Amino acid sequence: MLIIDGISEAEQIRSSIAVEVSRMKESTGKVPGLAVVLVGQRQDSLAYVRKKIMACHEVGFRFSLSELPESCTEEEVCDALSNYNKDASIHGILVQLPLPQHFDEGKILNVLSLEKDVDGFHPLNIGNLAIQGREPLFIPCTPKGCIQLLLRSDVEIVGKRAVVIGRSNIVGLPTFLLLQRHHATVSIVHAYSENPEMITREADILVAAAGVPNLVRGSWLKPGAVVLDVGINPIEDPESENGYRLIGDVCFEEAVKIASAITPVPGGVGPMTVAMLLQNTLEAAKRALHFT
Amino acid sequence: MLIIDGISEAEQIRSSIAVEVSRMKESTGKVPGLAVVLVGQRQDSLAYVRKKIMACHEVGFRFSLSELPESCTEEEVCDALSNYNKDASIHGILVQLPLPQHFDEGKILNVLSLEKDVDGFHPLNIGNLAIQGREPLFIPCTPKGCIQLLLRSDVEIVGKRAVVIGRSNIVGLPTFLLLQRHHATVSIVHAYSENPEMITREADILVAAAGVPNLVRGSWLKPGAVVLDVGINPIEDPESENGYRLIGDVCFEEAVKIASAITPVPGGVGPMTVAMLLQNTLEAAKRALHFT
């Protein structure tokens, strides 16, 4: 039984990124720059942004944050993005999602320059991820982190049955597309699926990204399955410092007895997502600066 | 047991398109126009183009064909496309695929105006088909025809298990995306899949698009499954007029005993593909002419 340690994998990746940043700075006098546009004050969004700031600091990236009140207009968000599009010191831009409900997410993301879309959510990027023979400029961070964890844990993907639970634009769908690029036989299970337990039990590789705490029980798993738990669900816990703690979509205590490998929550996929964001931003900077 | 009659379904669709064309002509003085760029002389491509010409003629579309020799340059193909892009009497353009091997298909398809991409193969269209909450300008014709056959045969899709065999950019992948839009639980089986027979046997709805004659045997089917056979494979037949006949990816004689509904080859999905191309071209013309 392998507990896949996302924290230490992410640390290794950050170390090699830091080395590349030093090399880039020495040779070009520049460092990669990441900009985040944050609308409103959601606690989880603030926590994610803090993690990104810390990670950028650690590897020597420039970081810029544009904070807008929840009451701001779509135009103000688009203006913030346009300014970052034009800013040569910024190579990667992301809008911290979810946006408040009254915003048209698609319209706002359309403003973002393709070359700086380090989240990889632009439809042209997703299309190029889907189409065989094309290459997207960026692969979305969480799916990319999932695949990295599989590859670094020597999990065979080609020909294996993979099940993705959840079909969000951010995780489920691009994870399906990426697993298929790696030649897995992939199925997506979602809220309308009949008998999700039976389908999930067919998986050699399971990616749980439903956002439902403890959805996947031990009985849902094929013995020896590899389980990547993308869920980060806060549940009340009076004994913890903040009054809550984070659990995944998979019932960890049951799953460890049946899976051959599993990511914990926290400390599994989460740290890898941030590491992949750094990697995408580094790639964007290399392209912009013609640095290899 | 239902033999799904693609010929008569397509005929009904063409009839209603013809009515709309008359209405359009009366009101705007214009009719939808379709242009095809054909490179080389492949027998199957010529046959497909002939079918498109006949269909356009039947519903009252304008049709334009640009034939180029196999020895032509990429630039000449792009020039032909650019001319059609600018031609206001042409609302839909397609490049008859496959192109000869030495062409960069992606590069050529990029030239095509998004608003006239009636095949729906542009990465932005595929991305918008993949992403929930977005709408592609056009849905690729064969997948759209498959869904139409299911809907017109009153096959329930929501929550059902669908298996797509084959993951081509033209059929397999967009069919997956479209079935998922209709809330099926979809898996893609491909050349690397281990145990494709077992996975296929889980399907309530099977779309076979592998291009391998008689790949799917009776034993591959769940009793009562609905089977859409997209394969069009020529096999030698000395008794037939041309020395060959067309068969599907599914062994029809065995499948009819087990499936609840099936499309024949020929006369199933094929005619619907052409009907959907007409429908996409009509939509393109309506948008261009602001005609509703």
Automatic annotation (TrEMBL), chains A, B:
Q: Which Pfam families match?
A: THF_DHG_CYH (PF00763), THF_DHG_CYH_C (PF02882)
Provide the alphabetized UniProt keywords.
Answer: Hydrolase, Multifunctional enzyme, NADP, One-carbon metabolism, Oxidoreductase, Photorespiration
According to the entry, every stretch annotated as the Tetrahydrofolate dehydrogenase/cyclohydrolase NAD(P)-binding domain falls at 140-288
Q: Which reaction does it catalyse?
A: (6R)-5,10-methylene-5,6,7,8-tetrahydrofolate + NADP(+) = (6R)-5,10-methenyltetrahydrofolate + NADPH
Task: Supply one GO molecular-function term.
Answer: methylenetetrahydrofolate dehydrogenase (NADP+) activity
> Which intervals hold domain Tetrahydrofolate dehydrogenase/cyclohydrolase catalytic?
4-119
Q: Whom does it interact with, and what assembly results?
A: Homodimer.
Task of the protein: Catalyzes the oxidation of 5,10-methylenetetrahydrofolate to 5,10-methenyltetrahydrofolate and then the hydrolysis of 5,10-methenyltetrahydrofolate to 10-formyltetrahydrofolate.
Q: What is this protein called?
A: Bifunctional protein FolD 1, mitochondrial-like isoform X2
- What organism does the UniProt record list as the source? Nicotiana sylvestris (Wood tobacco)
Gene (name only):
LOC104240487
